[in-house]
Amino acid sequence: MGLIFGTVAGELPMVRRVWTARCDAATPFASVVKGASMIAFARSGDRLTVHLRGPETGPPR
Q1: Model pTM?
Q2: Sign of CA pseudo-dihedral 52, 58, 59, 60
Q3: Are 23 and 47 within 8 A, CB to CB?
Q4: Is residue 20 within 8 Å of residue 5, measured between CB atoms?
Q5: Which residues contact 31 (CB under 8 A, 6 or more apart)?
Q6: What does each C-alpha distance from 37 to 42, 45, 53, 54 come to in angstroms?
Q7: Is residue 32 predicted with pLDDT exceeding 80?
Q8: Which residues contact 18 (CB under 8 A, 6 or more apart)?
Q9: How deeply is 38 buried, as exposed, middle or buried, from its count of CB atoms within 10 A (0-12, 13-18, 19+)?
Q10: What is the pLDDT of residue 47?
Q11: What does the DSSP 8-state code read for residue 32?
C-alpha cells in the first residue's frame, strides 16, 4: 500500500505542524531539503528512534 501521510497544526508556539506517516510494508526512503530544523520520531515494532535534522542547505553528499 505504501506510505499513508497525515498532518495537523501544532498546539505549541514552536511547533508549526505535526506530520505522521505509517505503512504496512517496507518502502524506499526519500528526503528533501528543508530550511528549518525538525525532530522526527520513528517507531518500528517495539523500537523507537529520534532524528534531529536541518536546516539543510543542499542534498547529502
Answers
A1: 0.49
A2: negative
A3: no
A4: yes
A5: 60
A6: 17, 26, 6, 4
A7: no
A8: 7, 8, 9, 10
A9: middle
A10: 92
A11: -
